[in-house]
Amino acid sequence: MRNFLKQLATLFGVGRFPKGPGTVGTLVTIPLVILLAQAGPLVYMAAIVLLLPVGIAACEFYEQDKGGHDHKEIVIDEVLGFLITMVWLPMTWQAILIGFCVFRLLDITKPFFIGYLDKKIQGGLGVMADDVAAGIIASLIMQVLYTQTNWLGSQILVP
């Protein structure tokens, strides 16, 4: 189980991509977002709730074996953060593109308290916390865009 969780931390090797592994990890999450959206909101939310403790354990084991904190190879945190970003949104190319950009911007720049979480919380929880926070803030931004503008386009998939 420990080896499986360590593989999950890197999303089965995606995190070893030489350039921008966090961005690549977020990019390969797009099909999962679409699949979960088609499964319905309860399944989507259940996946997020399940992935949080599993992701924390995966990151914890990875850090224990590698030493140090928040290795660039760990991308399960980006997976969860992007899933949170896209919750309860239409599955349009515009929503996916804008959500991707907003989440990556917040994850990379770490504004507000996101940077504090990144620096102050250690272990697997610390690895996941900043991306969860970035995902929540990105989701709030996306919900405002969804309800107040037409920037997210027309629904292309019917869940």
Question: What this model shows, in words?
Answer:
The chain is mostly helical and 159 residues long. The protein has one domain (2-10, 21-148). The chain is built from 8 helices and no strands. Helix 3 (30-39) packs antiparallel against helix 4 (41-66) and helix 4 (41-66) packs antiparallel against helix 8 (123-148).
The largest pleated sheet is described as: none
Number of helices: 8
Helix content: 55-70%
Average pLDDT value? 93
Overall shape: globular
User: Please, how many domains?
Assistant: 1
Query: Which residues sit in consecutive blocks of at least 5 with pLDDT less than 50?
Result: none
What's the structural blueprint in terms of helices and strands?
Layout (H helix, E strand, L loop, with lengths): L1 H8 L11 H7 L2 H10 L1 H26 L9 H10 L7 H17 L4 H7 L2 H26 L11
Helix pairs in contact: 1-4, 2-5, 3-4, 4-5, 4-8, 5-6, 5-8, 6-8, 7-8
List the main descriptive attributes of the protein structure presented here.
mainly alpha, 8 helices, 70% helix
Q: Summed up, what is this model?
A:
The protein is mostly helical and 159 residues long. Helix content is 70%, strand content 0%. The chain has one domain.
